[in-house]
Amino acid sequence: MPLLGQAAVAMWWDMEAALRGEFEDWHSHEHFPERLGIPGFRRGSRWASLDSAEGFFVLYELESYETLTSPPYLARLNAPTPWSAKMMPHHRNMIRSQCRVLESFGRGLGGFMLTLRLSPLPGQDEALRQHLRATLAQLPDRPGVTATHLLQTQTPPASMTQEQKIRGGDAVADWIVLIGGYDSQILRNAFDARTLAANGAQEKQTASLFRLSHSLTPNEV
Question: Of 27, 127, 134, 146, which shows the fewest CB atoms inside 10 Å?
Answer without folding.
Answer: 134
